[in-house]
Sequence to fold (581 residues):
Amino acid sequence: MVNRVKVLEPKISNMIAAGEVVERPASVIKELIENSIDAGATNINIEIKKGGISYIRVTDNGIGIDKEDAKLAFMRHATSKISTEKDLNSISTLGFRGEALASIAAVSHVELITKTNYSEEGVHIIVKGGKVVSENDIGCPQGTTLVVKNLFYNTPARMKFLKKDSTEAGYVGDVVLHMVLSHPEISFRYINNGKESIYTSGDGDLLNCIYTLYGREYSKAMITVNHSENGIIVEGAVGKPSISRPNRTMQNFFVNGRYVKSKLLTVGLEEAYKNLLTINKFPAAVINIKINPQLMDINIHPAKLEVKFSDDKSVYEVLYWAVKNALYSETHIPEIIVRDTKKNEEDEIDIRIPLEKYNRKQNTDPENKIETNINQQSFVKEENGNEAIIDDFKIIGQVFGTYIVIEKNEELLLIDQHAAHERFNYEELLEKYKNRDVYSQVLISPVVVELSREEAVITFENIDFLKTIGFEVEDFGNNSVLIRQAPFNSENKELKALFLEIIELLSGQKESKISEIEYKALYSIACKASIRANSVMHTLEMKELVRKLLSMDNINTCPHGRPITISLTKRQIEKEFKRIV
Ligand code: ADP
Ligand code: MG
Fold:
């Protein structure tokens, strides 16, 4: 066989190019919305079905396309946005390559309906696999509608790379979210499988967009950023430390209206929060940087989101000061929850440690914290129905609200209450998990958790796994979920934090093995379900905890490896006091 070099037919070369521009439904949506924005639209409607694989429609009220040009728009390198080499250096539109429509049309069935304000009627064009199959005049309002059906129908290899419909819809949602955040002056409506999931009024107020996308809690806690220096403008909003996240999914950066990912910008933002956030917490932010297009390079791959600036340092500094000024314009008094230790002791019993039934031999007051030695010994726990065991330790008390002090067999033990409880909870959970005996509690009032789109996708992909560790969750619309059942009952804040921690673990799934994630998720549950350091414990609680601890054989570390107890023997003490040598 002879290998001859030949130029590819346009149909094939378009299909290859399409592979670069059109990776999935979300990339189609991105290109179509960018075209609508470039056309000056103030209203953009987006509709998808089945994750966008079977159906995508984007309608705008922009300038429309001339009847004569409409067919041209589907040709490769056909663009109205630049014409000379000089134009390349000062691009102010989102598109400029003239590749998108040709690429999309090569791998799907496309319909275009468009009308300008100066023509009487519009035009309706149908393109299949890159070929125009019909062209007709049509009566329609000014603007453009593009319908894309059966994406990748002629490229099965591409089709195979697509994920579940819900995952693809999640990617589309991300694109819409970025568009909304970078263009609060445009009214967007996004319909997924017949359900309106985003609507913004286009009133130009970013905080209203944040409200729509992320909910009230977030919009209330965002501080507006508005700063300009050296010709660089930084606008947007950043979150107060109270709404920081365990990941960066709520950070959105835009440069001249384009969504970008940039290490430089991430670091600039996070440096400004230094000392305001604890480790592994990341700020929420919507940052729109406006910079002279000549000072940046956008002529990179269309599907890539990186951005290059000719003067990194200035951009970094302007961003840093913009955020820092915004943060310090608000006073930050950290929330401190003061536990009222003077309150009735009974109220202080932490319900997270179930107090088991006791048989009391002597008539002493069980709530009395200062108990005599005899009283201590008189609490007899009934185990296995009837066998009574008398404790072989004595609770001396609690120090620094964090350590339990006990006396046991000529030893003085200091027990880290959190570490002990965490270890016990972990062992218990692990046992139950192995036996598929999941402990899950119906919450009296379900908890709503507002998520980022990525987090929502991860949640729905892992709904079964979440069930196996005790979380029953439901879709609550707008990227929020309703937790109906949880591994334990606790304050909303704690459950939310735990849930986010687990979603974060799952998002790193590709790197770590699933079994590792299971263990880590159990650690997280055990930790959140355990009594904290700095909380006053009732004697009964301490006793219960010490009993549980002593029932575990040969375990002296928390699941993270910190010691649970330290001991001083009677001998050591006597030596220290020089009673013996
Ligand atoms: P580019 O955006 O890079 O110019 P596209 O392939 O995305 O390339 O679009 C080709 C041309 O079609 C655009 O330059 C524009 O003239 C026209 N066009 C596409 N979509 C729209 C729209 N929604 N409204 C008006 N014109 C459009
Ligand atoms: Mg375009």
About this structure: Confidence is low (pLDDT under 50) at residues 332-388. The CA atoms of residues 93 and 248 lie 28 Å apart.
